[in-house]
Amino acid sequence: MNTQLLNLLVLLVFAPISCFLLLVPVSGKVFLSIDCGSSSLKPRTDNNSIVWVGDGPYIQTGEVHKVNIPAQIPDFDSNALNTLRAFPTRKKNCYSIDLDSKTVNSSRFLVRANFYYGNYDNKSSPPTFNLQFNGNNWEQITTTNDSVLYTEVVFSLNNTNNINVCLAQTHLDNIPFISALEVRSLNSNIYGYVPSEFPLLFQLRTAFGTNKTVRYPEDSFDRIWSSLGPLSNPSTLRRITSDAPSININSTIDKPPEAVLRTALLLFNSSEDIAYSDTTNLTGPWFFNAYFSEPIKLNSTQKRSFNLVVNANKDDSLFFPENPLIPPYGGALEVHIANVSTFNSFFSLAFFRTNDSTLPSLINALEAYTVGAKLAQGTNSNDVKALGLLQKSFIQLQNWNGDPCLPSPYTWDWVACSDDTDSPRITALNLNDFGLIGTLPDFSAMDALKTINLRNNSLTEDIPEFLGTFPELTVLDLADNNFLGTVPSSISNNVNLKFTATGNPNLSCTPTSICNTDPASRIPPPSTNTNTEPKIPSPADKGKSSKTLAQPIIILLIMFSGFLL
Ligand SMILES: *[C@@H]1O[C@H](CO)[C@@H](O)[C@H](O)[C@H]1NC(C)=O
Ligand SMILES: *[C@@H]1O[C@H](CO)[C@@H](O)[C@H](O)[C@H]1NC(C)=O
Ligand SMILES: *[C@@H]1O[C@H](CO)[C@@H](O)[C@H](O)[C@H]1NC(C)=O
Ligand SMILES: *[C@@H]1O[C@H](CO)[C@@H](O)[C@H](O)[C@H]1NC(C)=O
Ligand SMILES: *[C@@H]1O[C@H](CO)[C@@H](O)[C@H](O)[C@H]1NC(C)=O
Ligand SMILES: *[C@@H]1O[C@H](CO)[C@@H](O)[C@H](O)[C@H]1NC(C)=O
Ligand SMILES: *[C@@H]1O[C@H](CO)[C@@H](O)[C@H](O)[C@H]1NC(C)=O
Ligand SMILES: *[C@@H]1O[C@H](CO)[C@@H](O)[C@H](O)[C@H]1NC(C)=O
Ligand SMILES: *[C@@H]1O[C@H](CO)[C@@H](O)[C@H](O)[C@H]1NC(C)=O
Ligand SMILES: *[C@@H]1O[C@H](CO)[C@@H](O)[C@H](O)[C@H]1NC(C)=O
Ligand SMILES: *[C@@H]1O[C@H](CO)[C@@H](O)[C@H](O)[C@H]1NC(C)=O
Ligand SMILES: *[C@@H]1O[C@H](CO)[C@@H](O)[C@H](O)[C@H]1NC(C)=O
């Protein structure tokens, strides 16, 4: 093919972000915008008719901070960014959103997390940390001093009506924070060509022809279509607005808003075609959705027709099977481009007019995503229910949200889990020194427990019989509590159990050995039974996930001389 690189334009796309959770049911759909760090009980409607709520109902941990923001942050609701919630303690802290089960069936969900550091802590040290959703890794977030970052994931729920978003510390002294959190239901068909076991991690969504960001209410799902803003080189690039009275998007799967199809971008020199390229080093394949609409009512001698070529700089670059592409007037063409990877330090999507085309190629909008790892099922549901009973009984445990075990190694601080990364079991309860007051609920469903440590609380009444019946239990520490009565036979007869109940003044401990047994000292030492201690991730373990969508995306528009022959 006879192409030549004429020119490169570098355009910085500013990735905006904010942090809030707000639940606004719209005809059975979820449209929740949470203003993180805002304690406001009164919903607030912004300039885009988006209703924001405070985050109190969705999280109980973290600290609230005010943020100084510039007078205007283009495309963002500055009120949503002028507070944040930061998390100086715990491995992870989670927002938890319970949905009406009626809404859960309906759809996939788009979740967007927004971050604006704004030097809230006066340290001029924007942190890096990890973001997680429903027990899955999402993204590593690297914040900056003064730009808004956001990142988006689209996924389906399976066997749960809860959406949770967790912030996990990955670097020493880097305190995670969030400014706004948004949850939107999508129609079940939207992005439905990706199997529902996999999340879509969005990398890019640009409306090339518009001069301002398009989102709700133009996009009823509130996807954010970034604009290139004022064209950096108006003598090279040109926007064109459709003269069609209306644009029917019904033929598309993903229902882009009409506003992004109404305008397109093309090159000023009408003998040159447009291409999109990027120097991002793609570590995994990207998937694109490209959208086109013919802006001019063509007469019988006019034709706009072009071929998509991926990585035209590659000798064996393949023509796209759906070629040639002919945008419909008053309608929309959606094209899916799979498996795009970097070649020679960049990748490109070039649109070369066909030899019978009288008009140059153009583009209206482009989305790009990567497909994440298969969604985890989450910690064993019996274990989760039993943890729920403990949380109901003890107020100290009530502000732990999100998946107790996943993603590994970000467990709740007081449990340990088996290694299974899809549906792990709880193997240890480390509740010593928690100030628990009262009686233990029956958590016998947690039958993979190996260690139960309840030392130094104020637990009372008889020691429950079920504590001795866990098949794999090897350590049971009830010392320094206020248990009454006698040691149940399930415990005293359990020869595998290292059991301690000293320091319970009203517990009958005769002979004294009954309250302090160690199989190691009684029987031949058993094969070392690994007592699963909670794994505290070392900084080196953390922060391995992919680059954040929120970073500015560099777009190179490459002009190819002539067309493809
Ligand atoms: C909303 O729009 C008005 C008028 O354009 C503007 O003055 C105001 O700053 C905007 N509010 C926010 C929070 O961006
Ligand atoms: C949700 O879907 C399941 C299976 O498809 C069905 O059994 C259930 O009735 C649905 N629930 C609602 C509230 O529509
Ligand atoms: C940051 O500095 C400002 C002005 O010096 C002060 O008002 C504010 O309290 C400080 N904030 C923190 C978190 O230290
Ligand atoms: C943030 O600002 C401080 C002070 O201006 C600077 O030292 C630091 O390098 C900046 N950090 C980033 C990530 O830009
Ligand atoms: C939903 O969960 C069930 C088990 O609870 C599993 O068998 C099934 O594969 C899951 N479906 C999807 C789409 O993830
Ligand atoms: C943005 O585009 C609209 C419609 O095409 C136009 O009316 C408006 O003047 C443009 N604004 C800027 C700042 O270019
Ligand atoms: C698009 O589809 C919707 C729902 O099926 C229908 O109401 C609408 O009339 C259609 N629009 C056009 C222009 O055909
Ligand atoms: C791109 O990423 C791969 C894998 O991470 C790495 O091996 C390669 O050196 C990177 N290339 C550039 C140009 O950074
Ligand atoms: C079609 O439109 C073009 C551009 O406006 C014009 O030059 C040409 O004469 C028209 N042809 C016919 C057959 O109307
Ligand atoms: C992408 O590439 C992988 C590996 O080559 C292949 O298994 C997969 O089917 C491709 N996906 C699509 C949608 O073409
Ligand atoms: C256009 O190209 C095709 C094959 O690429 C060729 O068969 C056809 O003759 C060409 N048409 C013109 C008008 O050159
Ligand atoms: C337009 O592009 C063609 C092909 O690259 C070139 O020959 C011509 O000089 C360009 N025209 C202008 C005005 O730049």
From TrEMBL:
Residue span, Malectin-like domain: 34-371
Locations listed in the record: Membrane
Cellular-component GO terms for this entry: membrane
Topology in membrane: Single-pass membrane protein
Keywords noted in UniProt: Leucine-rich repeat, Membrane, Repeat, Signal, Transmembrane, Transmembrane helix
Disordered: region residues: 513-545
Keyword Transcription found: no
Signal peptide extent: 1-19
One Pfam match: Malectin_like
InterPro entries linked: Leu-rich_rpt_4, LRR_dom_sf, Malectin-like_Carb-bd_dom
PANTHER family, per database record: CARBOHYDRATE-BINDING PROTEIN OF THE ER PROTEIN, OS07G0107800 PROTEIN-RELATED
The name this protein goes by in its record: Malectin-like domain-containing protein
Organism whose genome encodes this protein: Papaver atlanticum
